[in-house]
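Worked example 2:
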Amino acid sequence: MANTKDKTSSLNQLERVREIHRLIARYTENPQNETLRVTAGVLARKLHVTDRQIRRDVQVLIQRIEDKDVEGGHGGKDCALQYDAKKRSYLYTRDVDLSVWVGRLDNEELGSLLVAQQALAVFNGMPLAKHVEHIFEEDAGGLVGNHRSALREEITDLISFHPEGAGVIDEGHFATIYRGLLLGQQLEVAYQSRASDKPVTRILHPYHLCCFRQQWRLIAHDSRHDEIRDFVVTKRRLHSVKLLNKTFRRPSNFSRQEVHDRISGFADTRKRLVRLRIARAGAHHVLDRRWVSLQSVSAMGDGSIEAAFLVGDLDEFKRFVLAFGGDCEVLEPADLRDEIVGEARKVLEREKH
């Protein structure tokens, strides 16, 4: 909690105004969610400043909205930001677009942002990617209207992303999950597990979205089994997603690191040590990447390596081993070695026929 407080208390006024805008817009879109109400007191506690400072920040926000109205030829209208005494909250009476102005960034900073844009955009349908794209396409202050807009083409020529094997997602489903995650609202999903031949309806409390091996996983409390599970967010697995008008609170002891360990199999209570001998031709697949489950690597005199992994899902890891073909030998455990030999025999038998 101390780290969070230090971070929010160090925000400058522009950053606070942007956060105030985000919170008001969120409540405006979800007025039925009482936990999202926005008052000066709520903002002061969240941003760790005084009520008086919040009132000054709100005035800056009002001025920015009015300036945008004038820029768009809509001057003279009542300000979109109002305090609704009945709802006991600030809210917007109409759509307010306060996209971030990036024109003051230098070329190096703009280049970094363009690279980040590409990194997000590789996942089609991801809301964050669309938001970043909107920033760059904004007429007032965006890169298109900026004299350095040619930097986009230059960066694209220098750096690109090619996500081979990225998960196929449904844009609408992903947007609904993303919304439930941000707003703390329950989801009703029709989900088909790997072992099932048809989808089953479940009520989920979405806790975390994780992109693991270029595939999105939703970590959520499954009311049907009363436990935290991970769900693969692909079109084939996720048949439907509905946002429910019910909120939940994420447990205070929820750990993002435990989520990552869980997804990778590193935290599995059934984890086992696997030792591989990998020939020189395949060693780079281990040495040139980061593997959460990798425990140690030893170089052999002939250029091969011995690598030890701590694995939770042997079935998933077996596919990793098979991808090496004849360049990999399982040293232990014996049952995994026997399974690999069995798979090799099956391939040989198929080739004979």
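Residues 51-71 form the longest helix (21 residues). The two ends are 64 Å apart (CA to CA).
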